[in-house]
Write a sequence for this structure.
């Protein structure tokens, strides 16, 4: 069991630093990834960033395909382009921001906070969403052909 | 912790609660961590079917728990973590192979540069 969940809020610089270590590492990692996407520009083909293996090997879109281009568009403030590249991943960015905030707050409060990740049917909804998204964006006719990126 | 049992799952503090076994009463104890966030991340970012398996396993955690199969729920949670980990690892391996191929191509081009450049 993690030591930050003691039931009392983190007091003192040391306890706060311990509570923020995990979220800080995640934010740092996300920052590095964002910098790589910003510099690599995945929206222009032939860049240094690798193409998704699923797309490379089978020529189909996986549920995560277009995620880097979505992140690139989001970083540049182009919300509609981000929605076009991977709408589901965009929703998950927002959801993960929520659960990340809940995780951080829970670590600071010493008591885990629940978020959408802990709901009863979340795994089922996520699984069905991914499966549907996987199929829909590969359908070769309108209106679904617009989802292929 | 109290009792001869391992501590119950969930990040709840050892407070003034009545002693609670690891597995019951099911309606009160929190289900084990299903590692769903790792399953989602590895599915979205790693593009490999292992992530789907992790999500399916994560799905079974809560279901088994509320049906009254705590040991199986814990096993499903472990499986979910394992599949998510392998999903991430396979991406790391693929990325390593990608870097290797790029490096080899650069080396070949570099070695034959004198012949390519007139």
């Amino acid at each position: 069991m993690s030591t930050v969940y003691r039931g009392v809020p983190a007091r003192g610089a040391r306890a706060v630093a311990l509570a923020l270590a995990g979220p800080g590492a995640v934010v740092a990692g996300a920052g590095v990834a964002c910098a790589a996407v910003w510099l690599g520009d995945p929206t222009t083909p032939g860049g240094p960033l690798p193409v998704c293996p699923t797309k490379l090997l089978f020529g189909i879109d996986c549920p995560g395909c277009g995620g880097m281009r979505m992140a690139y568009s989001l970083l540049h403030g182009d919300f509609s382009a981000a929605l076009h590249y991977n709408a589901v991943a965009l929703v998950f960015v927002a959801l993960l921001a929520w659960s990340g905030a809940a995780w951080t707050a829970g670590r600071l409060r010493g008591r885990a906070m629940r978020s959408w990740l802990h709901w009863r049917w979340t795994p089922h909804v996520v699984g069905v969403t991914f499966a549907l998204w996987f199929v829909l964006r590969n359908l070769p006719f309108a209106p679904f052909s617009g989802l292929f990126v | 912790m109290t009792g001869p049992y391992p501590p119950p799952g969930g990040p709840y503090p050892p407070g003034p609660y009545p002693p609670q076994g690891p597995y019951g009463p099911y309606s009160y104890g929190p289900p084990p961590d299903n590692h769903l966030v790792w399953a989602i991340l590895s599915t979205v970012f790693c593009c490999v079917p292992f992530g789907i398996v992790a999500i399916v396993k994560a799905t079974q955690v809560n279901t088994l728990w509320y049906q009254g199969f705590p040991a199986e729920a814990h096993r499903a949670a472990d499986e979910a973590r394992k599949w998510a980990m392998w999903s991430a690892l396979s991406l790391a391996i693929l990325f390593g192979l990608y870097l290797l191929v790029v490096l080899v191509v650069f080396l070949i081009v570099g070695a034959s540069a004198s012949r390519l450049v007139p």
